[in-house]
Amino acid sequence: MADERFADHLEYPRGEAPSPDGAHDGHAGGAACGDLVRLSVRVEGDRVAEATFDAEGCGAVRAAASAAVELVEGAHVLDAARIGSPAIAAALGGLLPSKVHAADLASDALAWALGRAVAADGAAEAIPTRTLVAMSGGVDSAVAALCCGGDGERSEHDVVAVTLELWRDPENDGDRSCCSAQAVRTARTLAHGMGLPHFTIDLREPFRAGVVQPWLDEHAAGLTPNPCVRCNGHVRLDAMLDLADRIGAAHLATGHYARTTPDGLLRLAADSAKDQAYMLSALSRDALRRMRFPLGEMHKPQVRARAAEAGLSVAQTPDSQDLCFLAGTGKAAFLARHGTAQDRPGEIVDRSGTPVGRHDGAHHFTVGQRRGIGVGGTGEPIYVVATDARANTVTVGPREALDTTTVPVRALRLHRPSGEVDAVKLRYRSKPVACTLEGTSIVLADPASAPAPGQTACLLAGDVVVGSATIVR
Prior knowledge:
This protein is α+β, with helices and mostly antiparallel strands. About 30% of the residues lie in helices and about 25% in strands. The chain is built from 13 helices and 20 strands. It has helices spanning about 1-10, 60-70, 75-80, 85-90, 100-120, 140-150, 180-195, 205-220, 225-235, 235-245, 285-290, 300-310, 330-340, and strands at about 25-30, 35-45, 45-55, 125-135, 160-165, 200, 250-255, 260, 265, 290, 345-350, 355-360, 385-390, 395, 405-415, 425, 435-440, 440-450, 455-460, 465-470. Strand 2 and strand 3 (about 45-55) form a beta hairpin. Helix 2 (about 60-70) packs parallel to helix 5 (about 100-120) and helix 5 packs across helix 10. The radius of gyration is 25 Å and the shape is globular. The chain starts with a helix and ends with a strand. The model has no long low-confidence stretch (mean pLDDT about 90).
């Protein structure tokens, strides 16, 4: 029977034709394997109106692409988004281990085509109970999906998964990135294993323009930018909320450790060691009203236990540590490949302006840095106190030189009156510091060390995020 199905698709391929007008393409394969497949999908409302393919390489790839077309054409977009490699292989009566890659390629191409088509042209009816879940391929987002009903406790179209590919760089370690092509495949496999529709969205160009380029530019200007705050506040979550509208989902859930208040503001998570409200502090109130954070009341061991209980393969996957676009390559190497600032030797000076050493470029240093300064023999630890990209100098001094009680800010955005601000987080992992907000200055109750220009100031009233701003010199 398996040979008959396979042979039928090989001899009478379904939809082997050019890409139709108004369709969106997905491509998979490459020179390494010699197999290439293009799958095109045209969506009208909540249905796949038309699908076609073209394939080069072995016959198994052609048959798999034909099977994918037959499976999705005419289907509801959420049913089409459940179709992965196992379903394509099954439609062929099963594949030998040596031919499974053909189903994988067809699945990859379908995912890209379907994601692009739905993001551009989808218009499913709004369902108040439907939730879109952001899945990164890690344990946190997988458990968030379980908490939303991805364990089968809700109807089949109530929980939908999405993964964004944000960055692709051959120099990166894709396994250490939450937004690489490898992470997308892992997330899709997880979602399909949980019975969830899964969409893949290519956000590489908006991410480069809206997150990576500003990060590079601000480094060149001698600042210490925070790309994750910018990404969450202005790029990534906005794109997923737009997709939620396209598929009729009322809410967007993520695996962030954060909570919300009844009136739609952000709160710190129950697990202070994992709290990520800082990284979400630039979200608008309109966005927050639709956000759900299922892990907000949980601690990390509970999350891993829930994943293990559900039999998820990612239950013990280590947490990602790098910025997603660095992915194991290191900041210096990334700046060397992509940065706009050129290494320019200059002076390291003390607070009186006396030269005490040399550097290769001021943009390599950040306020508060201790390691890697390259100046020794002072008898006490020294820190970067300031950088000046224009003068190309790095100023160093003792730790106490970093202390301040006044932090000037710009781009201030408040959700409540300024008089309610009683604390601020000046860095992602720092503890809140008691303060008041006076105009565009944060006045600290006790000195804080090394507030770095370019970083986000997350303004609090108790454990509620009531505003954010960017620290300036």
